[in-house]
Structures are given as structure tokens and as C-alpha cells.
């Protein structure tokens, strides 16, 4: 059966989104585009990097293809449009990497050098990775643990987490990888490490 985004279409009648407003317009604008089947390694890597970006605090609507800068500030993640060279030296010390939202609503992260040095940034990302792996230690399928609606998330994080979930679900369906327990996906994490997930270009 061909993939469908949802049982009920939430697209505005106008294909350009005109006439839609509020949540409906945001939903339309975050519709994943260009989703393709992907190897499990890529699905896991994109799931991880996207969740790291979406765990950050931000109060703006991210745009596709625009550089967003991830920082660790007092133990919390912060996503900002302000580049490291525009911050104070103290803030630059917390620079984790440059995050970019892709058209399929996954996020890529180009890591800073600090992520590969011993210190608070590497430690924090490693803890996040361990928590991510633990979340997948379940018999539920990957599709069932995707963050379609996490009420405790602020609006934009929740909106883009839902878009990410729609994207990954579509990729899994296209790749004939449905109904696989998340624990089986987790086994693939043992063959990955942060330097391979957050690969240097």
C-alpha cells in the first residue's frame, strides 16, 4: 500500500498554503519533502542528530537550509541563529556544532572541534547518546517510539519533532523496515560511535 502521511489530509486547499493560518499553516510548512528509503545506519544517525537539535531551547521557527548553532549553556542545550564568532568567548566555549534543517525535516549537525575533545561538551553529548540508546531498549517498534506528540515540548520543538516523526516513518515504510522492534534497531548502535554519526565533512 502506498505511503500516506495521515488518514485525513491536513493540507490547505490551496497548494501554496494560502488561506491557512496558525497551526494548519505550520503543519503544512513542516510537511517532509523528498523522503526516500534509507539504510538503518542513516535512519538512526538522523534520528539521533535530529533529537539532539530538537532537545535544545529555541523560540523561533527554523527554516530549511539555514545554519542554526547549537550550544551547551550551563548544562542545557541552546539552539541559536547567532554564530559563535558573534558571541562572547565564554559562550563560544559551549559551541557544539552547526545544525541545518533538511527538506525531509531531519537535522544534520556539523560538529565543532570541541565535541571531539575531552570536556563538558563531549560528556554531555555522550550522555545524550546513552539516553537515546536506552530509549530504544524496548520491544515497541521504531514507529511507536517516534516523538509524534510530546506535550512537554515547547510549540516549535513539538511541531518539528512531529515533522521528524512523519519523515522517519515514511523512510521506514519506503525501506520496508516496518514492524521491527526498536531493540533490534538499537543493536545497530553498537556499530556506531559519535565520531561516525557526527562525521566531519
- Strand order in space, largest sheet: 2-1-3-4
For the record, give the distance between the C-alpha atoms at the N and C termini, rounded to a whole number: 38 Å
Mean pLDDT: 85
Supply the helix-strand structural class.
alpha+beta
Task: Extract low-pLDDT stretches.
Answer: 1-18
What number of structural domains do the residues give?
1
Question: What's the order of the H and E elements?
Answer: HHEEHEEHHHHH
Summarize the structure in short.
With 201 residues, the chain is α+β, with helices and mostly antiparallel strands. The protein has helices spanning 22-29, 40-54, 89-92, 120-135, 142-145, 155-174, 182-189, 194-197; strands spanning 67-73, 76-80, 95-101, 107-111.
Describe the structure.
It is built from 8 helices and 4 strands; from the N terminus they run H-H-E-E-H-E-E-H-H-H-H-H. The longest helix has 20 residues. Helix 2 packs antiparallel against helix 6. It has 201 residues and is an alpha+beta fold. The N terminus is likely disordered. It has one domain. Helix content is 39%, strand content 12%. It has a 4-stranded antiparallel β-sheet with strand order 2-1-3-4.
Amino acid at each position: 500500500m502506498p505511503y500516506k502521511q495521515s488518514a485525513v489530509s491536513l493540507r490547505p486547499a490551496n497548494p501554496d498554503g494560502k488561506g491557512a493560518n496558525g497551526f494548519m499553516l505550520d503543519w503544512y510548512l513542516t510537511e517532509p519533502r523528498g523522503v526516500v528509503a534509507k539504510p538503518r545506519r542513516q535512519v538512526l544517525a538522523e534520528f539521533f542528530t535530529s533529537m539532539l537539535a530538537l532537545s535544545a531551547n529555541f523560540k523561533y521557527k527554523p527554516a530549511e537550509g539555514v545554519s542554526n548553532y547549537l550550544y551547551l549553556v550551563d548544562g542545557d542545550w541552546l539552539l541559536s541563529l547567532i554564530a559563535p564568532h558573534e558571541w562572547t568567548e565564554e559562550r563560544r566555549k559551549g559551541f557544539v556544532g552547526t545544525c541545518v534543517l533538511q527538506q525531509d525535516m531531519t537535522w544534520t549537525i556539523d560538529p565543532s572541534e570541541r565535541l571531539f575533545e575531552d570536556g563538558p561538551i563531549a560528556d554531555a553529548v555522550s550522555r545524550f547518546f546513552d539516553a537515546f540508546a536506552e530509549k530504544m531498549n524496548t520491544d515497541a517498534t521504531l514507529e511507536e517510539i517516534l516523538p509524534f506528540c510530546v506535550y512537554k515540548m515547547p510549540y516549535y520543538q513539538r511541531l518539528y519533532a512531529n515533522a521528524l516523526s512523519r519523515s522517519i516513518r515514511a523512510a521506514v515504510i519506503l525501506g520496508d523496515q516496518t514492524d521491527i522492534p526498536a531493540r533490534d534497531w538499537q543493536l545497530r548502535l553498537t556499530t556506531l560511535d559519535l565520531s561516525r554519526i557526527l562525521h566531519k565533512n
